[in-house]
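Action item from last meeting closed. Structure (180 res):
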């Protein structure tokens, strides 16, 4: 989480030199990386008592999030057990389950989000994306959820995967609309 916060801030610090608009910096994550991206999107202001420098004065809030078959919830039914165990241990502390169930952390400050998932994903249940989308919608956050009937888990950019092969183009259209 600290590395993700630092990465967003570092991009903003170097935006002019890198020819990047500092108000259009996002995060993208796949599977467990989707959990990290969602955690940053919901807890970007979380601070630890560490020494600060000038970069820490910049916002770590992503301007948008792209979550691909993301682990979202650590609650029993929809979770990916391995991700939950690796991050918060087994047995899971109920306070940590709540803290890292990102559908429970969405606020009006959560950035616009694009979600993509396959219905036949056997590793990370589709309910993860559904729960996050519902939370975003209930807070009035601009969001898009694209569910494909097949693609399984780990389809990445969909290259050579018929059902999910066009999701990148859908994403590009969403980005153009969201970031204009």
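Sequence:
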């Amino acid at each position: 989480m600290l590395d993700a916060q630092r990465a967003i801030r570092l991009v903003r610090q170097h935006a002019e030199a890198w020819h990047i608009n500092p108000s259009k910096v996002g995060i993208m994550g796949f599977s467990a990386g989707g959990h990290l991206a969602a955690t940053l999107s919901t807890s970007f202001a979380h601070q630890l008592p560490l020494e600060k420098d000038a970069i820490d004065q910049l916002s770590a809030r992503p301007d948008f999030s792209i979550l691909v078959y993301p682990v979202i919830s650590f609650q029993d039914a929809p979770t990916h057990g391995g991700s939950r165990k690796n991050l918060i241990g087994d047995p899971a502390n109920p306070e940590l389950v709540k803290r890292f169930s990102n559908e429970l952390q969405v606020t009006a400050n959560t950035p616009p989000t694009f979600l993509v998932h396959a219905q036949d994903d056997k590793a990370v249940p589709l309910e993860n994306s559904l729960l996050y989308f519902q939370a975003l919608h209930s807070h009035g956050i601009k969001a898009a959820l694209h569910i494909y009937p097949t693609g399984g888990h780990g389809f990445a950019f969909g290259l050579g995967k018929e059902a999910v092969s066009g999701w990148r183009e859908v994403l590009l259209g969403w980005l153009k609309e969201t970031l204009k």
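Note appended to the action item: The helical segments are 2-13, 15-18, 32-43, 81-88, 94-99, 127-138, 167-178.
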